Amino acid sequence: MSAGSSSLAKAAAAFKLANDGLSPFASQLVSDVIKAQRRKESESRAQPTQVSGNTVSKIVDMVQDDEKSERNALVVTLSFYGLLRAEEASMLKWSDVHQSGNMLKLKIRRAKNDQLARGRETFCAWPEGSKRDCLLKRFRARASMRPGLDFVFQNILNGTKLTPSAISGIAKDTLAAAGVSATHHSLRRGRANHLQQSGVDFQAIKETGRWRSDAGLRCYLSDSPRAQGFTVTELGDEVGG
């Protein structure tokens, strides 16, 4: 039972192939053992981490006056508010980033729900004059002084586009510096749950985050009173007794 359920399933399949199958009793026994191991794994599996808006704000507050610090904080901030996957952040160009008042529009060049490969657009709240807005504008001003830097997130030394793996590593390290053990994907999960708790409906979250299926999004969302139909007033009454 020290082997994982996947390893047990593969071993059972190989044994069946080599021995022309199993008896009904043996097949049932193998099935029960694998199911028991999966239950054991699910009970011990840590719940996925969700990064909060407060953590992202803390990271923005921690930014130092240098290009690398600004870039790393912007990786986290844009990924959180734009619900960006690492590969989407990697492909983001300055020509894909547009601000109109208190709204930021990001063009996603490759999205999982973009079946016609035309690109998708994601809109997020981006208050003018806010700390995250100032961060974006400072970093953009730095980039404008270095001709040829098309991509938003690039290697500071040689100007090459950051890979999805590099984006993930930067996010993880930046979150760790803020005292949070989480991954780049935790940003996407945290923002989706924040939107749900704020009363944004399921379909709007799905469109904003470019999920291809309802089932895919449900894997991200935690149970929430708002998601189950409770209003702000009802939640207040419940808290008040």
From TrEMBL:
PROSITE patterns the record matches: TYR_RECOMBINASE (PS51898)
InterPro entries: DNA_brk_join_enz, Integrase-like_cat_sf, Integrase_catalytic
One annotated GO biological process: DNA integration
Keyword Isomerase in record: no
Statement: the UniProt record of this protein carries the keyword Transmembrane: no
Positions of the Tyr recombinase domain: 46-233
Highest taxon of source: Eukaryota
GO MF entry, a single one: DNA binding
Keywords in alphabetical order: DNA recombination
Protein name: Tyr recombinase domain-containing protein
